[in-house]
């Protein structure tokens, strides 16, 4: 009996000490551990340009993908127990590339993604995230020129 009680006390202490448990959004979402997140990478490039992408976390590799114009690639997941899930992507167009985080523990990101859908759009002038709260695409990352281009 005392072993069960001790385990319960440790669990309660662990939950109480986790800062992510304190996150409450404007729309009342709590406990991001239980949210199923969806990340989308969208090819918003002009001139019929293909977008190469490779996304991964420390636990999951989404593989290599070539997105035709206006196409997207998406995946879904739940964060790990320690709220340390991070996904990043390497993307490349004809003359430029970018590497950036597409998901991490951040209340501002959660609001932009409306606590569910993180939509990243590769455009000619840079990489944007869809900001659902303000109903606009927000510039986040600049392209880096490929060597020799």
Automatic annotation (TrEMBL):
Which superkingdom?
Eukaryota
What does the entry list under GO cellular component?
A: extracellular region
What residue stretch is flagged as signal peptide? Answer: 1-22
Q: Pfam families under this entry? A: Self-incomp_S1 (PF05938)
Q: Where in the cell is it found?
A: Secreted
Keywords (A to Z) from UniProt: Secreted, Self-incompatibility, Signal
Which PANTHER family does the annotation name? PLANT SELF-INCOMPATIBILITY PROTEIN S1 FAMILY-RELATED, PTHR31232
Protein name, per record:
S-protein homolog
